[in-house]
Amino acid sequence: MGTIVNSIAIVAGAMLGILLKKGIKEQYTSTIMDGMALAVVIIGIMGAMEMNNLIVVLASIVVGSIIGEKFDLDKKLENLGINMEKRFGKGDSNFSKGFIMASLVYCIGAMAILGALESGLTGNHETLYAKSVLDGVSAVIFASTFGIGVAFSAIIVFVYQGAITLLASSVKDLLTPEVINEMSSIGGILIMAIGINILGIKKVKIANMLPAIFIPVVYYTVVALF
Fold first, then answer.
1. Higher pLDDT pick, 91 / 3
2. How deeply is 30 buried, as exposed, middle or buried, from its count of CB atoms within 10 A (0-12, 13-18, 19+)?
3. I want to staple 153 with a disulfide (CB 3.0 to 4.6 A). Which of 53, 58, 103, 122 is the partner?
4. CA angle 118-122-124, nearest 5°?
5. What are the backbone dihedrals phi and psi of residue 39, each rounded to the nearest 5 degrees, phi first?
6. Greater model confidence, 21 or 146
7. How far is CA 78 from the centre of its chain?
8. According to DSSP H, which parts of 172-202 are helical?
9. Is the pLDDT of residue 60 over 80?
10. Could you say which DSSP state residue 15 is in?
């Protein structure tokens, strides 16, 4: 239920953002986008400060990036965005950009992972309900700049968070406070990278780094065993 509400909130927010977009003059779009990017960077920095073990975080990013490059997740996500743009974009050149950016923002934050786990383990959806409010508001802002592609990110959120919720009972023993802190920290670093991408400072292959979020689970499990 938490994931369903979250997905609906994103779609609703995006639809409202598209309506508001018509009232925003094009000359303001660039400045609004830069402001959004800076806010995303700050959110990422706040999340990154959760780390307890810098070495684990750095090693996770290295190993996760190698895995991501091996499967080229960034290219796969980009191709998915392009294919959806061709089918649903109706000539909107920002469709793929909005879809990819919103999907990453909504999926790699701590609330997405922890909320989905809490939903699956205890049936308590409060964290995801709170995330729904935040995502719905941000979807208004994102869609007012990037368009309808933001709404389609709800599909990725539904699949991603839904899978975590369904798998929660089988991984609950692995999720110690240390693991959760490092996962949150890595997620914050990746969110910072999203802001860098939006600002156009450098093209960071964020999707290729996504496996890094789950490397702390493997590391602390191995440490516990030996």
1. 3
2. exposed
3. 103
4. 70
5. -65, -40
6. 146
7. 15
8. 177-199
9. yes
10. H
Residues 167, 120: contact at Cβ < 8 Å? yes
Q: What's the CA gap between 67 and 91, in Å, rounded?
A: 34
Q: Rounded to whole angstroms, how far apart are CA atoms 115 and 107?
A: 11
Contact between residue 39 and residue 167 where contact means Cβ atoms under 8 Å apart: no
Cα 109 to Cα 46: distance, rounded to the nearest angstrom: 11
Which backbone phi and psi does 72 adopt, to 5 degrees? 50, 60
- Residue with the bigger pLDDT between 224 and 8: it is 8
Mean pLDDT of the chain: 89
Residue 20 confidence (pLDDT): 85
Residue 180 confidence (pLDDT)? 84
Alpha-carbon distance values, 3 to 12, 207, 213 (Å): 14, 21, 20
Predicted pLDDT of residue 150: 95
d(CA 183, CA 173): 15
- Other CB atoms within a 10 A radius of the CB of residue 168 amount to 17
